Amino acid sequence: MNAAPELLLIGAAVVVGIVQLLWATLAARLHPEQDLKWAAGPRDEHRALTGVAGRLDRAYRNFQETFPFFVAATFAAYLVAKTGPLTLWGGVLYVAGRAVYVPLYALGVTGVRTLAWFVSMAGIVMIVAAIFLA
């Protein structure tokens, strides 16, 4: 049995999230305020990240905010048999937008980064629209 392409896109989004988590974690550990000794401890005090490490951390937190909506919308569309071009392209836009968003944020690119975020959100909106329109 072949998996629906939309479900494969959830897998692709998971890969984007894991890469983003690892990149943010590595950058945080290289940050002078959050070394390996701090990471191995109880982390009772909050240490703010700055620079690239801070941007990668914020980008990962942003991924955590949008990913549940993407998964829920995709599964809902799949379960009610409303998949098709709108859900497929919506999933592609979400994954591509999220994949591009991270390096843009890390590099401090503002306008294009916001556009990448809008592209990923448009992908989610397309999937939700397919549930009600298709």
TrEMBL record:
It is found in: Membrane. Pfam families: MAPEG. Its main location: membrane. Keywords: Membrane, Transmembrane, Transmembrane helix. The chain crosses the membrane at residues 7-28, 88-108, 114-133. This is MAPEG family protein. The lineage of its organism: Bacteria, Pseudomonadati, Pseudomonadota, Alphaproteobacteria, Caulobacterales.
